[in-house]
Amino acid sequence: MKRWKVRSLSLATLLALSGLWYGCQSTAMTSAKVYINQNDWTLAREQLLVAVAETPENSEAQMLLGIAEATAGNLAEAAAAFDAAEADQLRAEEASRWRRKFWVETFNVGLAALNDDSLGEAESSFKQATVLDPTGAMAYRNLGIVHERQERVEEAAAAYEMAVNIDSSDASTALQLGYLHYQNEDWERTIEWIAPRAGTAQDAGYYRVLASAYDHLEMEDKALAALQAALEIEPEDSELLSDIAGIFLRRDDYQTAVGYLERASALAPDDTVVGYNYAVSLIRVEDETTALSILEGLVAGDDSFADGWELLSQLYLRADRIKEGQEAYDKSEKLRVEQ
Predict the structure, then answer these.
(1) pLDDT tens-digit profile of 43-86?
(2) Co-location of 21 and 63 in the same domain
(3) Do 249 and 229 share a structural domain?
(4) How many CB atoms lie within 10 A of CB 2?
(5) Is the pTM of this model over 0.85?
């Protein structure tokens, strides 16, 4: 375990300035402060353990013991000592500052390791930070990131939940937790975490995930609402327009589908899926002339589009363009054999 060294001059000076060197005190406390002034935290810790055993209510001794334990890397013991010191209202703020100092040092080691993709070291440091201060939400959040990169999904979810339980305003972690559940195909929990927060995030991606989760649960109206909310954020997204049209196609509402697919096709004229669905919808609303034009454009851009050639052959035949219809059909059959 890493030992967290504190510069002797700054620590001794800080302790002196904070007024910790006065008043009646036990022999153990006197000795501890001498060792602290010499920057010998090993011997100071031994004396502080004696002082705390003699007078557990001594918040000064508890706070100094917390510093000594943290310096030695004993973060669970440091946390317990800081807890005892913070129970004294007169000592609480100062003890909290010392706890925070060591927490930041430990957290920053984890952050550097995470940035270097040293996941084992990062995991260890973030776990130590949660021991030193169980109320530090960011340590749990970053621990979740580490576990997610390690593909330890359940542990990542648990760490994210801890972060959100500590800081309920942390919408980004809650949304990431929802996405993690989506990857794990837990549709109900995806909705639980993302639905209340997607509006705040104003990220079309979360609405897409939410729509997909609703769709898996056959909650079509809510899926449609989520997609439309995403479209408000990204109105020029042809895929979103196509997905919304897909819901109306399932409902046999071809007229509404045509409107969305027309916009999608204009944005992505080379997208064969969009173009094909647009042509099918146009046929259903009896606009075969436009459908024919769309299909001719698709196969001109993608000569290997077998479905497009087959549908095009049907339209040629309906228009009494028999030779073109037969040629288009033959082309589609040849492509299917080759594929």
Answers:
(1) 999 999 999 999 999 999 999 999 999 999 999 999 999 999 99
(2) yes
(3) no
(4) 13
(5) no
